[in-house]
Design goal:
Membrane topology: Multi-pass membrane protein
GO molecular function, one term: transmembrane transporter activity
Largest sheet: 2 strands, antiparallel
Shape: elongated
Low-confidence stretches: 212-216
Family: Belongs to the major facilitator superfamily. Proton-dependent oligopeptide transporter (POT/PTR) (TC 2.A.17) family. Belongs to the major facilitator superfamily. Phosphate:H(+) symporter (TC 2.A.1.9) family.
Structural class: mainly alpha
Helix content: 55-70%
Distance between the termini: 32 Å
Keywords: Membrane, Transmembrane, Transmembrane helix
Order of helices and strands: HHHHHHHHEEH
GO biological process, one term: oligopeptide transport
Strand content: under 5%
Number of strands: 2
Strand order of the largest sheet: 1-2
């Protein structure tokens, strides 16, 4: 493929990889739960790396090598291109499941309740080690894995990540009995819509009093006693919401400006092919026998992008 086509493909792959964790978060919190979402994400990531590895192992699924006689290189066929896109799509779906839930799922294992005095210290330490290990993995990928690809070829260079992803998924499921698995409470976005609808219905109602806990939460105002069942649950969730539902929506709205800022930064920095093209034209030899792979130059930028994606 030409440089422009390659750049577009990598950019859309990066965009999908950074967007699908939003979808994965909704699926995890509303339907599948975090454990199963991470597990499915690991399986999809493994399948994606295997398909990508097959493009290096099977000669017919990639164009033939360019010869040195000056003739034009043969372009990728439609089926070969779609197979490559399919491998990227599988890995993006896998990233959507893993990135959206791994940090929160890990925090669930350490959360001993609100009354634990060391809860915040333990969680802060876990977050720090989580981000540190994530950045370390990117640096290893851009140095050791890229060096294998550059020196030993794509068959080994793609095979090693596939094996590592398989081991990752295997160990994750083997440790399943030891995990704390929180149950799915409700559809989060459906809850957001209910709060908006009920708040609109009650927009003209007066608050019980200025000191009430429901002040500025008109979605929580009880209009009639029959709106609440004997167990304290709303008889019709489209007429009455809980304070927790309102606070969840408010927290979501407060986070939106931060997410939008991160999107703008990512667009400006997601130029993964540009450093590679520049590095290929440089003298990268540290010694006569050792040359830094051009793909490793991304280590100066990709950890920052990874940290931005993880925080989103």
């Amino acid at each position: 493929m030409d440089v422009g086509t390659t750049q577009n493909l990598l950019f859309f792959w990066s965009a999908a990889t950074n967007f699908l964790p939003i979808v994965g978060a909704v699926v995890a919190d509303s339907y599948l739960g975090r454990f199963l979402t991470i597990g499915l994400g690991s399986i999809f990531s493994f399948l994606g790396t295997v398909v990508l590895w097959l493009t290096a192992m099977i000669p017919k699924v990639r164009p033939p090598p360019c010869n040195q006689s000056g003739q034009a290189c043969k372009s990728t066929t439609t089926s070969q291109y779609m197979l490559l896109v399919f491998s990227f799509l599988l890995m993006s779906i896998g990233a959507g499941g893993i990135r959206s839930s791994s940090l929160a799922f890990g925090a669930n294992q350490l959360d001993k309740g609100d009354n634990n005095p060391s809860k915040h210290t333990v969680l802060e330490s876990f977050f720090a080690w989580y981000y540190t290990s994530s950045i370390a993995s990117v640096l290893i990928a851009l140095t050791a894995i890229v060096y294998l690809q550059d020196r030993l070829g794509w068959k080994i260079g793609f095979g090693v990540p596939a094996i590592l992803m398989f081991l990752s998924a295997l160990f994750y499921f083997l440790a399943s009995p030891f995990y704390i698995k929180q149950k799915v409470r409700s559809n989060l976005f459906a809850s957001f819509i209910r709060v908006i609808v009920v708040a609109f219905k009650n927009r003209k109602l007066h608050y019980p009093n200025q000191n009430s806990d429901y002040h500025h939460k008109n979605a929580c105002i009880i209009k009639r006693p029959e709106d609440v069942k004997l167990n304290g649950v709303a008889a019709n969730p489209w007429n009455l919401c809980t304070v927790e539902q309102v606070e969840e929506l408010k927290a979501f709205i407060r986070v939106m400006p931060l997410c939008s800022t991160g999107i703008v930064i990512s667009i400006n920095m997601s130029q993964s092919s540009f450093p590679l093209l520049q590095a290929q034209s440089m003298d990268r030899h540290l010694t006569k026998g050792f040359e830094i792979p051009a793909g490793s130059f991304g280590m100066f930028l990709d950890p920052l992008l990874t940290l931005t994606s993880l925080r989103k």
